[in-house]
């Protein structure tokens, strides 16, 4: 009898949920599946994910999707047309450019800013925090005081100062936002590190002769990842808003780049009579920020080890 | 002083309380005080209030209302001048000596009497400071060494001005209507001079009050300058010591408002009486509003894009001509500048002696591409343009960016406020620049002198004309410009100016786009508000309220 049950092929689900995984791979996949189940149970989080997948899709195929050029308009023939005009679904701006096409191409800039800031700021914060937390002593004190200095300034004001010093432009905006957004990650990473640095498995690794660098990167950093990912995702909405804010103030993307914040800035002149010029990019920013926030919320629930039940 | 402030404060609190009480009874309706004119005005170009240094359009409006001149433009016939401080004047037979008799019993706002000494000192400091507008005076042969001889007071009421060549008298008098010739209160300024150490660049031991006058005031106009806070407010107050007819309103407040839509909203709400920087869309809306009125005046101002010849690509004549074919004149005229200007491609504004009213260039990408290929750039190149971030500069720049792109030229726009872009332009560190040129006095020479005169093209050149700023070295045209100046026969003089304009049209780093019409939106209860033909004739002393 027992033989018969063992030979019955496991369903893929059972294999993933097995409480006695046969390999590391199975264990990892099992955990990932659990996480996905918790995540997908949250409807709003899935909506957020879909919004962002949509954003990525639009950005990837912008050239195919955009009905018009984002930078060359028809000043004489199609200036400030209202939404729904023939050939211009969302209307045109003051240079006769199709707003829909500009939004579609602008998604690339938005995505680029978010991704670049995330891959610059998150690792920096992670390393600073993990090193400070693990090393302790004077190194901890120095790194954390530097972090405190950055935290002492309002984020947008500091970013403004950096851009003013570096000169306007989208690259400099990315640098400025990255420079101002790593300190919270360092704080989180340090807090997580402090909880694990004295645990038994770290002591075991140390006894086996692992170097501090190996301990930090192989055994401490992975423990900080989940809370960091949640925090970065939740911050992305803020990053988009900061980038749009810089664009709005003329310090981010320069004309004719279809950056959404800059589009709002140029459209606000017409807000009384041609509301759509400023409203459309505003709606785009709203939707994408909402997407990131929903996704971040869902990830927090899904990744929180205290609620994982394992 | 304290007492006065308290009084004013009490008044303010009282009116605030009254406003609150009224607000409870009926919808909130803001109204400016009966004795105060409030204008919404973008004046981010103001650098200094010193008439000896200021050369900005917004400053000209403020100083022309607060300072006096020997002679002013006659607004009824702009080819003539009328006396302001001067009662009468005579020109010697050789055309070199001008003698001005001052009116009797005039006083500065400070209470000091106005004498010929003050006039002489004003000329002296303007010439010795040698700031941007000094050339208007130094072109008559004045310099730091001879100015006290050539512009001097022979007695308290007589001022004698000697020029180096027998210019047409109207030209000399027109020049004296420029803001640089405004008369400052010598006694008051001398109280505020700052000692300087003379060196090779600056030979005098004091700054002639230049630093103090940056925000200070030492004039005698119908209004006195009470306060200027950069990008915030300019406040004028009636000058009770004024020698002429007193201003009708007690004070004039210019509020810095950059946005056209903001000005329109404030005008509609009654927060301001005059909106000065209305864009076409908003101007149209204001003109349809029954509570509001509009006024407009053609200005002696042309808008142009200039190419710095220090950039070797932009120095090529084919490139310059190609760029003239790459402006979409028709579309810009029909949209971006509708109501605030009309397409005009020569450097003399319509209405001025000798103005050429031909617009030979049209938008033609094929022709431009051909010219660019001839210049050796069939695939175009990359170039930057400094743009003041107000309209219509930005709009035109963006349109130009697109049309240049169609011929393969990649234009990078460097936005900045008026101060940043102007400073860079005057140091000729730009590639391209979009700007406006307002005439300094109503004479064709004003524009000819800046567009076609460049006596010293080296970086050390002190005559910083537009030709100099764009490193356009034109000895032939400079000579011709001088000739026109000494030509006493009006018809012949006009002919020379026509030739100069043709040269600039055919072959120059200037792409002239349009002539400005200045517009303003007004509250319906305003009387007597009139825009002048230039930026230093937008007088506010005749304005009153019903």
From TrEMBL, chain A:
Q: Which GO terms describe its molecular function?
A: dipeptide transmembrane transporter activity
Pfam families reported in the protein's UniProt record: BPD_transp_1 (PF00528), OppC_N (PF12911)
Q: Which PROSITE patterns match?
A: ABC_TM1
GO cellular component annotations of the record: plasma membrane
Alphabetically ordered keywords of this record: Cell membrane, Membrane, Peptide transport, Protein transport, Transmembrane, Transmembrane helix, Transport
Q: Which residues cross the membrane?
A: 44-62, 109-135, 156-181, 229-254, 274-296
Task: Write down the membrane topology.
Answer: Multi-pass membrane protein
Please list the residue ranges annotated as the ABC transmembrane type-1 domain. 107-296
Q: Give the domain of life.
A: Bacteria
Q: Which GO terms fall under biological process for this protein?
A: protein transport
* Compartment annotation: Cell membrane
Similarity section = Belongs to the binding-protein-dependent transport system permease family.
Return the protein name: D-ala-D-ala transporter subunit
TrEMBL record, chain B:
| Keyword Signal listed | yes
Annotated Gene Ontology cellular component terms: ATP-binding cassette (ABC) transporter complex; outer membrane-bounded periplasmic space
Give residue ranges for domain Solute-binding protein family: 80-457
SUPFAM superfamilies linked to this entry: Periplasmic binding protein-like II (SSF53850)
Annotated GO molecular function terms are: peptide transmembrane transporter activity
Q: Which InterPro entries match?
A: Peptide/Ni-bd, SBP_5, SBP_5_dom
Q: Which family does it belong to?
A: Belongs to the bacterial solute-binding protein 5 family.
The name under which this protein is listed is ABC transporter substrate-binding protein
What organism is recorded for this protein? Sinorhizobium glycinis
Q: What is the lineage of its organism?
A: Bacteria, Pseudomonadati, Pseudomonadota, Alphaproteobacteria, Hyphomicrobiales
């Amino acid at each position: 009898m027992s033989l018969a049950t063992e030979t019955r092929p496991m369903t893929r689900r059972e294999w993933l949920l097995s409480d006695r995984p046969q390999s590391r791979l199975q264990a990892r996949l099992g955990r990932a599946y659990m996480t996905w189940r918790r995540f997908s149970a949250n409807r709003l989080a899935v909506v957020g994910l879909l919004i962002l997948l949509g954003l990525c899709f639009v950005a990837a195929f912008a050239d195919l999707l955009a009905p018009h050029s984002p930078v060359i308009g028809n000043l004489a023939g199609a200036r400030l047309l209202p939404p729904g005009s023939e050939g211009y679904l969302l209307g045109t701006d003051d240079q006769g450019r199709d707003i829909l096409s500009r939004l579609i191409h602008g998604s690339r800039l938005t995505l680029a800013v978010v991704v670049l800031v995330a891959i610059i700021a998150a690792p920096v914060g992670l390393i600073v925090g993990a090193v400070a937390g693990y090393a302790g002593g004077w190194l901890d004190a120095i790194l954390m005081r530097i972090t405190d200095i950055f935290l002492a300034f309002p984020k947008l004001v500091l970013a403004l100062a950096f851009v003013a010093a570096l000169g306007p432009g989208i690259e400099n905006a990315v640098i400025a936002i990255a420079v101002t957004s790593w300190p919270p990650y360092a704080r989180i990473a340090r807090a997580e590190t402090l909880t694990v640095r004295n645990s038994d498995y770290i002591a075991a690794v140390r006894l086996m002769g692992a170097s501090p660098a190996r301990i930090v990167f192989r055994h401490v950093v992975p423990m900080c990842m989940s809370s960091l990912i949640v925090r970065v995702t939740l911050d992305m909405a803020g990053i988009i808003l900061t980038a749009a804010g810089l664009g709005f103030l003329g310090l981010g993307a320069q004309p004719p780049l279809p950056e959404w914040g800059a589009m709002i800035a140029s459209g606000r002149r017409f807000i009384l009579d041609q509301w759509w010029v400023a409203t459309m990019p505003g709606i785009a920013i709203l939707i994408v920020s909402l997407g990131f926030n929903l996704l971040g919320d869902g990830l927090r629930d899904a990744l929180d080890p205290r609620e994982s039940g394992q | 002083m304290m007492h006065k402030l308290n009084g004013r404060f009490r008044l303010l609190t009282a009116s605030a309380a009254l406003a609150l009480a009224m607000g409870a009874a009926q919808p909130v309706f803001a109204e400016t005080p009966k004795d105060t004119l409030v204008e919404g005005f973008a004046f981010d170009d103001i650098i200094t209030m010193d008439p000896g240094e200021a050369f900005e359009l917004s400053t000209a409006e403020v100083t022309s209302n607060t300072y006096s001149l020997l002679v002013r433009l006659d607004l009824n016939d702009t080819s003539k001048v009328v006396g302001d401080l001067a009662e009468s004047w005579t020109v010697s037979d050789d055309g070199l000596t001008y003698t001005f008799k001052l009116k009797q019993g005039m006083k500065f706002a400070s209470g000091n009497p106005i004498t010929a000494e003050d006039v002489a000192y004003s000329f002296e400091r303007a010439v010795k400071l040698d700031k941007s507008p000094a050339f208007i005076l130094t072109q008559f042969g004045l310099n730091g060494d001879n100015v006290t001889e050539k512009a001097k007071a022979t007695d308290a009421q007589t001022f004698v001005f000697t020029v180096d060549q027998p210019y047409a008298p109207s030209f000399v008098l027109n020049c004296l209507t420029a803001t640089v010739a405004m008369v400052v209160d010598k006694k008051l300024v001398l109280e505020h001079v700052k000692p300087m150490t003379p060196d090779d660049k600056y030979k005098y031991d004091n700054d002639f009050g230049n630093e103090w006058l940056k925000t200070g005031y030492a004039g005698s106009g119908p209004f006195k300058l009470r306060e200027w806070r950069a990008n915030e407010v300019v406040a004028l107050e009636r000058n009770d010591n004024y020698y002429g007819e007193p201003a009708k309103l007690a004070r004039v407040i210019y509020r810095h408002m950059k946005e056209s839509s903001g000005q329109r909203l404030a005008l509609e709400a009654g927060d301001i009486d005059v909106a000065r920087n209305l864009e076409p869309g908003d101007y149209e809306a204001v003109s349809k509003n029954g509570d509001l009125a509009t006024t407009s005046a053609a200005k002696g101002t042309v808008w142009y894009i200039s190419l710095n010849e220090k950039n070797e690509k932009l120095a090529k004549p084919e490139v310059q001509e190609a760029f003239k074919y790459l402006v979409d004149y028709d579309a810009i005229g029909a949209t971006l500048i509708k109501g605030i200007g009309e397409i005009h491609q020569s450097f003399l504004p319509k209405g001025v002696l000798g103005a050429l009213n031909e617009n030979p260039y049209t938008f033609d990408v094929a022709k431009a591409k051909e010219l660019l290929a001839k210049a050796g750039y069939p695939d175009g190149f990359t170039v930057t343009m400094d743009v003041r971030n107000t309209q219509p500069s930005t709009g035109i720049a963006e349109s130009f960016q697109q049309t240049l792109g169609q011929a393969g030229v990649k234009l990078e726009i460097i936005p900045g406020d008026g101060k940043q872009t102007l400073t860079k332009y005057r140091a000729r560190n730009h590639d391209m620049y979009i700007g406006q040129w307002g005439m300094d006095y109503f004479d064709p020479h004003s524009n000819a002198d800046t567009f076609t005169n460049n006596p010293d093209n080296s970086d050390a050149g002190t005559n910083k004309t537009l030709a100099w700023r764009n490193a356009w070295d034109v000895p032939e045209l400079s000579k011709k410009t001088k000739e026109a100046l000494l030509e006493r026969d009006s018809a012949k003089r006009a002919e020379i100016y026509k030739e100069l304009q043709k040269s600039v049209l055919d072959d120059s780093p200037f792409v002239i786009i349009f002539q400005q019409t200045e517009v303003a939106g007004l509250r319906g209860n305003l009387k007597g508000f009139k825009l002048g033909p230039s930026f230093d004739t937008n007088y506010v002393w005749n304005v009153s309220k019903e």
